[in-house]
Amino acid sequence: MKVAKVINNNIISVINEQNKELMIMGRGIGFQVKAGDPVNKGKIEKIYTLDSKEVSEKFKTLLREVPIEVMEVCEEIIRYAITEYNKKLSDIIYVALTDHINFAIERKKEGYEIKNALMWETKKLYKDEFSIGLEAIKMIKEKLDIELPEDEAGFIALHILNAELNDDVSNIMTITKVTQQILRIVKYHFQIDFDEDSLNYFRFITHLKFFAQRMLNQTYIENKDDYLFHIVKEKHPNAFSCSVKINDYLQKEYQYALTNDEILYLTIHIERVTQR
Q1: Among 140, 152, 193, 205, which is least packed, fewest CB within 10 Å?
Q2: pTM of full prediction above 0.85
Q3: φ and ψ at 20, to 5 degrees?
Q4: Overall number of domains in the chain
Q5: Do 184 and 269 have their domain in common?
Q6: Residue 249: which CATH number?
Q7: What is the mean pLDDT of the chain?
Q8: What is the pLDDT of residues 47-64, one digit of tens each?
């Protein structure tokens, strides 16, 4: 196995027998090495096999900028998600999560923190992913001595979710169709145009995207919080009525009936996105 390119002192690329480029990480593996030299196998710590050329190119750019210590902890987080929670993640996770965590660490060092507007939804709807996020900030503290806030656990959870959502084309098309149709139902029910630059619209779109993925997987959310369900139903009757319309549409088109919890979350989002 010979070096194809030296990315930096700790990252090289090689071309395998199938003529695919592989990224190899290891401390000092690229130091005083040039293309054509044999790879020092004793220094190999991780081999990245990225199927998408676009993702591979983005990853190479990122590798030039990110310290190896950050790369190592990101790899450990991804491995934890895969092994402990059986997550099937697309290659984009190596780019998106590494980039986010590196930037979060830089922000922390500068004393600047960003509040996560989707913390409530993430904690309630995506408990496994949020648990991975909490474990990730523990790893970062232990390995890098950087203490990130809990908001970052939510951001990390969303990156895990996005990597899970990287589905086949037909599923992505269905997710898009379902999201657009629900937006249309809400728009005509309230006779409004959305403020597409608003935070509530962003929250709603994010909720719908992940909801559509759950629907395709026939995964249901059911915490049986009937008390809160009835409170929201009485407090926001118009938004609740719109949720019922959406439920009728989904049952007719996809044979998927919303649980009370799904209607509850949907009603809250509709109420938010339709208020000026």
Answers
A1: 193
A2: no
A3: -105, 145
A4: 3
A5: yes
A6: 1.10.1790.10
A7: 87
A8: 877 776 777 777 778 878
Name residues whose C-beta falls within 8 Å of residue 228's C-beta, 6 or more positions apart in sequence. 264
Neighbours of 89 (CB within 10 A): 18
The amino acid sitting at 230 is: H
d(CA 26, CA 69): 11
- How does pLDDT run across 163-202, given as a tens digit for each residue? 887 655 567 678 878 988 999 999 999 999 998 888 888 8
CA distance 266 to 239: 8
CA 67 to chain centre: 22
Q: Which residues pair with 6 in a beta bridge?
A: 12
Domain carrying residue 10: 5-49
Q: Which two tokens stand for residue 185?
A: 């139902």
Cβ atoms of residues 27 and 44 within 8 Å: no
**Mean pLDDT in residue range 144-160:** 93
Comparing 101 with 91, which gets the higher pLDDT?
101
